[in-house]
Structure formats: C-alpha cells, structure tokens
Amino acid sequence: TKATETRAFEADVSRLLHMMVHSVYSDKDVFLRELISNAADACEKLRFEAVSRPELLGDDPKPRISISADADNKQITVEDNGIGMSRDDMAEALGTIARSGTRAFIERVGTGTEDTQLIGQFGVGFYSAFMVADRVDVISRLAGSDEAWRWSSDGKGSYEIAPAPLEAAPRRGTRVVLHLMDDAVSYTGSYRLEQLAKSQSGHVPVPITLVEKPGAEARDIADGTALWVRPKSEIKPEEYTDFYRSVAGQYDEPAATIHFRAEGRQEYSVLAFVPGSRPFDLFDQDRKGRMKLYVRRVFITDDADLLPRYLRFVRGLVDSADLPLNVSREMIQESPLLASIRKGLTNRVLGDLAKLAENEGEAYAKIWENFGVVLKEGLYEDYERREQLLKLARFHSTTSGEAWRGLADYVAAMKDGQKAIFFMAGDDRARLEASPQLEGFKARGIEVLLLTDPVDSFWVTMAPDFDGKPFKSVTQGVAELSDIPLLDDAKKPDAAATPEVDRFLAFVKSALGDAVSDVKASDRLTESAVCLVAPEHGPDRQFERLMNAAGR
Ligand code: ADP
Ligand code: MG
Description:
There is one protein chain. By secondary structure, the chain is of the alpha+beta class. Helix content is 34%, strand content 19%. The chain contains 18 helices and 20 strands. β12 (290-295) and β13 (298-301) form a beta hairpin. α2 packs across α6 (190-201). The structure holds adenosine-5'-diphosphate and magnesium ion. Magnesium ion is lined by residues 34, 37-38, 125.
C-alpha cells in the first residue's frame, strides 16, 4: 500500500474538471477563497479533535494558514497546520464529489460549457484550483500519523497518490501547491494576493500569513479574530459581506444580517444572514439547515438543527459559551441547552424579519420573493408560531397587482359584511384570475388571495385563521356573499329562489347523477352560467388535484 498509485477520478469529477478548465467564468479569484476556507476548516477540525486528544497539537498548538508565492516558478502554495489527510482521506475527498453543492452544480450545468457562469454561484470547492492551475499537488500529513502522502493531478481524468518523504511534507496538516497556468501567473503579485486573501477571507477564525517570494519573511495579513466576537458598532458592512460569503458559500450580498449576543441563563453569540439570492441547496430532499455550531470559538458541527427547517435559508453560526466542548456531536444534538438556543434563535430571526417587514418593506419583499415558499412550510410545521408566520406571509391577490400583500392589510380592506379571508389556490396566477368562480367576488370588490405555491394548499387546509377571520376557499361550499353589497356598476346575479330555478336545479341534478353531490344556485357568478365547487367541508379543489397528482 506504500507504492505510487494512479487512479481515475469519479466520472462526475472528470466532467467538472473539464468544465473548470474550459470555463468562461471570469471570476477565477474564488480559488483562493476555497483553499483558505478548506485550510481553516482543517484547523477547526483539529481543534475539535484535540479537545479529547490534546497530544495531537504537539508543540504547535496555534492554528495558522500560510500563503506563499513564487513568481519565477509560477507557483502559489496554501499551507495549514490543521487536521491533515490520510491516504484514504485524499482519495475520498479529492477524487470524488463529496459536496452536495458540487453535485448540484454538475446536474444543473450538464456537459456543456455555456453555463459555467454558475460556478460562481455554486462554489465548487477544492476543484476551483483547476481554474488557475494545470497541475495541483497536495502534500498532507494527518495529525498523529507518521506518514505523509502526496496527491497530484493535472485535472484531466486521473490523479496519482504516492508516499511523500516526511522531510518534504508539513509536520502536520496540508500543503496545496498550484502550478499556475500562464494566464494566471499574475496571481503571484503580492499586492494582488494580499488583497484577495483579505477581502475574501479576512475573517476566517485562523490567522493568515503571506510570504511574498521565496526567502521573504512571513507577513501577517489577517489576525484570525472571529468577526462575531467583535462589537457590532466596529464592524463595517464590507466585513459582514466578506464573512457572509465565506460562511454561506454565496457570492452575493446578504439581504439581512442578524448579529447578537444572548446573555443571561444562556450565553451565546449569533452571526447569521439571510442570503440575497436562493442558495442552490434550498430544496434538497433532506431540507437541512446550514447553521454552524461553535463552542467558545471551536467549530463543532454544521449538522446541529439550530433552526427549524422552514428557516433553512438562513446561513451563519452560533457560538455557545455554555455547551460542553468534550461531548460527541450526537450528544450535543440532544442537549437541552441546544433546544433553548434553537428557540431563542428562531424567535430572534422571526422577530428581525418582522421588523424588516415593518420598516423596510422593499427589502423584505425581496426576501419573501426568494424564501416565502420555504417560510410557508412553517405554517403547518410550527403550530406555535403560526400567527407570527402568518404576519410575515405575503401574497398576490386579485387587487394587488405586482405588489405583495400582507394579511393585516387584507383584513383592514375587508368589505362590510365580509367574514372570511377568501383565497383561490391553483398553479397559475393568470388562470386563477380568469376563473368564473371569482365573478361574484369581483362584482363586490372583494379581494381574493391567489395562492399559487403547492405548499399553500397544505397550510390553508389546516384551517388557520388570522385575526379571528377564517380562511375560505372560493371554490368551496357556499360563498356567503349575499350580505355584501355589489359594486354600483356590477351585473346583478340572478339566483333568486323561484320555482323555475328550483325545477331547473332538479333537472340538472338528475341529469348529472352521481357525478356531483349537489347542484345549487349561487351568488358567486355574475357572467358565467355554471362553475364547479368543492363541498363545504374537506379539501378544496386545488388540494384535491395535488393529492390526485401525488397518487393518493
Ligand atoms: P468542502 O470544503 O465543502 O468539503 P471541498 O471541495 O472544498 O469541499 O473540499 C473537499 C474535501 O477535501 C474537504 O471536505 C476535506 O475533507 C478535504 N480537504 C480539502 N482541503 C483540505 C485541507 N487543507 N486539509 C484537510 N482536508 C482538506
Ligand atoms: Mg471547501
């Protein structure tokens, strides 16, 4: 097992690398951020391991990341003294696609090269090195191991793993050497490297040094102070943005920043962001959150359910002062302390969103646009906070045009005699608006919410009410419109209970037989002769359709 071995990349990796190399994506800068973020992750993993095995730190307890440039040899090196990788780790981590984001990227882009813009949006981790390098060497020594290994590839289909002499390897951790392509040699300029590292990764919780050229002295370019422990008033918006990008793997601006420190019975800091656009993994099957858990600045896991699923778009971290460091990740999950952090954090996020909705309607509307569908899952998953979530919910309606409408505004605009919040659910807004079922409502100037997300049918059938007003489908039961006056210019519906009408209804009922459960005169229509409605109790028409489509 000590010999050199050449292995083929997993098929998906080959495709990805091909895309990278032929990428038209202009922002190749991101490679540095990805390498630094891996180096920082490795340092944090080591810190975590060292809690139970302090000997791993040896005489080199301080985490560090060092970047060095060598223009003459067209090389950039990023080295860390973190956890390192074993031979198997290397084959697994660098030869296969480990990240769901990378896989999602490949699925979206397929084999073409036209859409590689998306690289920026996905952030494809380690492999982004091949945007600037035509050969990458990774020399690594796992903490506590007496072997070192060298992984090497030109990014064209295969890689090689061979034992590395210990004297040519880091004493612990990983060295990534990029052999730059000709058009990327300018990255070795010290000013450029420093600017890049500072702006993209200045707030990773590990200090970074730069060696400008071989023989030069290492210079500190980032001190590793965790941004979240600094007072809010001292932090510039750009610093938040940089941090957001590195913690969320996003490349845009955050839509909202949530930074606070909880004190009292529980002490923890939170730095979290609502992304400016939808992260690629928002609709992953497992609907997992992506909040990281730290304990006294030591990274513990990104797998603790720190927020309910309907807030999974929020990215960032919680740093607890109270959780024990030396418990397993599984135990942390069960901890009552965690449950209480989760509760406090959830309330805070919803509270901040509510404030934003109140004070900065436009910014909030954008958040709703991106994440409303996800937030609405909370309407049926989080009974306790349903009222709060209903207040945050925004809708389109028959009278809203392109604007978003909140329920408080809907209720304030209800007509005299109107007892319910009316909605119509379907797939397509234009089709809904053309529906005859709305005629009687339009004729009375009654606003009807148009619910076009599949998730709408779920929460709305759980029959919540808002401000004491029940939600009622316009396609269901009697419309109860007769108490509400028609607008002056509206056509009068003609549903009077005359003997002719009764005879006609009886005739239609017998003609349709079992196909319908009832035939009624209705003040729902003003133009059309007839429409289908669902019974008063039970699912509305759209919910029935969804259930049928799901084969239930
Ligand atoms: P991600 O960081 O999201 O896991 P990457 O593609 O950036 O994805 O890295 C893939 C994996 O390679 C990492 O999960 C890690 O296991 C391994 N790796 C990369 N760089 C290092 C490093 N400097 N030290 C230790 N392991 C690393
Ligand atoms: Mg990474």
